[in-house]
């Protein structure tokens, strides 16, 4: 496995070096054009998204240059609208993870600065945030194409980061904004736990006939219900997140179907109509189910693991069935499994799930499947100037973008798949949806009333435990350094 791990590390170094050469300081590299572009308000997204990957892989020189850029050049005063969701998971998540790994206070200060600029998006009648914000002015709105609605995966994927920031700064406003969203969602939560992906920021109401999916626009909401529970060390304060997640998993059973060629998949639903389509994005579900086995009854744990293994097999075959051996963006299952949208932008979800399954089962096939996918990336997407996605997984035609998540997630999960389980152990760390690991930190504040506005009471015990955590963090950093080198 050491040889495979080193190959992945070499891929990261190639991707990083090309970004550094052609697009330094910009959000993303365009490898074919040999230039960069700003897709995320010009915040140097590739740099921030890569910090923890560089750190974990022991690429010290590259990490130090990235850290220095963040300290000296990162400027959040951008007079442009950008996604609240993407900024949270990539920038805030990347900064928090870099802080937890390195202990450098500068990262926490920067994390607080960007979050303060995001907060106006939560100033809505319902507390459901708008999807877009101008980082300079605070002007916020939701996109016209959504009819002014906010998106489930956007509004439900800030809780980890905002709660973690409160835990590390002792400033409650971040957690309060994020958890007010869960309070509102709890009021409209369906009995099957499956929310449609459009929610009004004005009224907080859902479109009951709207689309339900574990793919694009729905996915990470369900992921964060579980992971906020894990992040909070599964204490009483976060029990309601686990309960909501289990309710959603029961509802998800109604979407599990099998194609005529034997592949288990997750369908989508619009009103009462089933849609036989599954996004590659939904291939995060096997990993989520594995993570959810801890804390489940033995019967439930077996159910979760069995479904995870079946879905992972489907996701692997999404890759194997194309000419390039890379998966399309989504698949139709009207009869047999067939590529729908045919591009591949080097997404991480399938190898992410393999990492969890390998750590849970020890089954070598998950490492072999991940190696197959990595080799396809090397063969199909690698250029002398970086890595780029495919416009079509059957023709092999290339696009011109190296997504930041290829460095933040895809290569990190592959590296961890081929590493001992002691590298970022899952009983100490939990990954945000951009694969940024955050240290599990017991929630020691008072439980919030789910029907009311949150009233956060800081107790003497909370303060004491927080101090103990900080001492614990100081003691652990040396161990992290030893493991990753």
Model description:
The longest helix has 25 residues, at about 460-485. Helix 1 runs antiparallel to helix 15. This protein has helices at about 1-20, 45-55, 60-75, 85-100, 105-120, 150-155, 160-170, 175-185, 220-230, 240-250, 285-295, 300-320, 350-360, 365-380, 405-415, 460-485; strands at about 30, 35, 80-85, 130-135, 140, 150, 200, 210, 255-260, 265, 270, 275, 275-280, 330, 340, 380-385, 385, 430, 435-440. The protein is globular, with a radius of gyration of 21 Å. It is mostly helical and about 475 residues long. It has 16 helices and 19 strands. The chain is about 50% helix and about 10% strand. The relative contact order is 0.13. It has a single domain (about 1-480), classed as Glycosyltransferase (Alpha/alpha barrel).
Mean pLDDT: 93
Which band does the percent of strand residues land in? 5-15%
CATH topology: Glycosyltransferase
Structurally, how many domains make up the residues?
A: 1
Question: Span between N and C termini?
Answer: 15 Å
In helices, the fraction of residues equals 40-55%
How can the largest sheet be summarized? 3 strands, antiparallel
Low-confidence stretches: 450-485
Question: What sort of overall outline do the alpha carbons produce when their principal axes are compared?
Answer: globular
Find the structural class using helix and strand composition. mainly alpha
The tally of beta strands, per DSSP, is 19
Number of helices: 16
CATH architecture classification name: Alpha/alpha barrel
Q: Regarding CATH, which class?
A: Mainly Alpha
């Amino acid at each position: 496995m050491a040889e495979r791990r080193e190959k992945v590390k070499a891929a990261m170094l190639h991707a990083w070096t090309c970004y550094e050469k052609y697009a330094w300081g910009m959000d993303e590299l365009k490898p074919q054009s040999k230039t960069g572009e700003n897709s995320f308000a010009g915040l140097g997204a590739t740099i921030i998204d890569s910090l923890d990957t560089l750190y974990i892989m022991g690429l010290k020189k590259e990490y130090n240059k990235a850290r220095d850029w963040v300290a000296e050049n990162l400027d959040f005063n951008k007079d442009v609208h950008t996604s609240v969701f993407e900024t949270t998971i990539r920038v805030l998540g990347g900064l928090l993870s870099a802080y937890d790994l390195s202990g450098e206070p500068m990262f926490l200060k920067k994390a607080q600065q960007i979050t303060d600029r995001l907060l106006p998006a939560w100033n809505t009648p319902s507390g459901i945030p708008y999807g877009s914000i101008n980082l300079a002015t605070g002007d916020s709105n939701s996109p016209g194409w959504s009819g002014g609605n906010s998106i489930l995966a956007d509004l439900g994927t800030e809780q980890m980061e905002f709660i973690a920031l409160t835990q590390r700064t002792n400033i409650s406003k971040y957690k309060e904004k994020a958890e007010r969203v869960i309070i509102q969602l709890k009021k409209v939560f369906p009995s099957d736990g499956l929310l449609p992906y459009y929610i009004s920021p004005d009224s907080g109401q859902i479109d009951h006939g709207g689309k339900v999916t574990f793919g694009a626009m729905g996915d990470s909401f369900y992921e964060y219900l579980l992971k906020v529970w894990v992040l909070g060390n599964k204490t009483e304060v976060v029990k309601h997140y686990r309960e909501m997640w289990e309710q959603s998993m029961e509802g998800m059973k109604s979407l599990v179907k099998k194609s005529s060629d034997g592949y288990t998949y997750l369908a989508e639903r619009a009103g009462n109509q089933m849609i036989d389509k599954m996004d590659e994005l939904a291939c995060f579900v096997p990993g989520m189910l594995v993570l959810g086995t801890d804390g489940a009854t033995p019967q439930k744990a077996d159910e979760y693991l069995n479904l995870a293994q079946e879905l992972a097999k489907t996701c692997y075959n999404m890759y194997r069935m194309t000419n390039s051996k890379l998966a399309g963006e989504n698949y139709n299952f009207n009869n047999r499994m067939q590529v729908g949208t045919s591009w591949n932008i080097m997404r991480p979800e399938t190898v992410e799930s393999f990492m969890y399954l390998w750590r849970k089962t020890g089954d070598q096939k998950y490492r072999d499947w991940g190696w197959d996918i990595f080799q396809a990336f090397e063969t199909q997407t690698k250029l002398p100037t970086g890595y780029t996605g495919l416009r079509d997984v059957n023709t092999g035609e290339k696009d011109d973008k190296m997504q930041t998540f290829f460095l933040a997630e895809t290569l990190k999960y592959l590296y961890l798949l081929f590493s001992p389980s002691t590298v970022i152990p899952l009983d100490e760390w939990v990954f945000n949806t951009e694969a940024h690991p955050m240290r599990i930190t017991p929630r020691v504040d008072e439980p919030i009333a789910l029907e009311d506005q949150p009233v956060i009471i800081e107790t003497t015990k909370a303060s004491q435990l927080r101090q103990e955590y900080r001492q614990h963090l100081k003691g652990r950093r040396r161990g992290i350094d030893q493991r990753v080198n």
